[in-house]
Design goal:
By secondary structure, the protein is an alpha/beta fold. The protein has a single domain, classed as Alpha-Beta Barrel (TIM Barrel). The chain is 43% helix and 15% strand. The chain is built from 9 helices and 7 strands. A 7-stranded parallel β-sheet has the order 1-2-3-4-5-6-7, sandwiched between helices. Helix 3 packs parallel to helix 4 and helix 8 crosses helix 9. It is globular and about 50 Å long.
Length: 223
Amino acid sequence: MRDAAACGVDGFIVNATDTSNWATVIEIAQRDNVYGAIGVYSLCVSNLPDNWDEQLMENLKANPELMVGEIGLDKRHPDIEAQDSVFRRQLQIAHDMGRVAHIHCVGAWGKVMDILRTNELPSAMVFHAFSGAPELVRELTNMGIYFSFGPDVCNTQYARMRAAVTTVPESRILAESDTPHRLSPDSVPNTVAEIAKLRGVDVEQMAETIYNNTLRLLNGRKI
């Protein structure tokens, strides 16, 4: 966080992955400019406690600023049906409790789109490290989605991701470090600079847009 702050990063969103680190995220989110999300990640759907969803709701009730995440589907991991069930339940909880949801999807776009089309949804959601087809952007925008891009957008091998950057509405684009999975938080300025380059705008303007979009997301606002 110190490294990121030194590079101009003004706030942090910290996502949990399973029930074992909810308490840690809740503790970290007590710091200034740190926002927490708790949930069950696609890799962590096995061996959940029977009342995991009740525990999630209790923690959300006790912490009104918390969001729901990181949740979603990942075809690289087993138990896709269990992933599906846990994802649907968490989307419903986020909807019912008025919380923003942070969504992960790798290689399961057909399934994720079916779920989003057939379930009640939170008023605002964000796709972390968005890798979907540019053709999905309009429909997802209408669902209340924000699109976050990480350091991979700087890699020309990720042509589809870079194309999506240019199609996302200005009011819905975000940037992230994906730390510690990818690089350190001080990678954010380079990511923002690449997004600005791809969209043909000034870097400072892009940074301000992303900052304002993040505040809007944190307020759970769907434009």
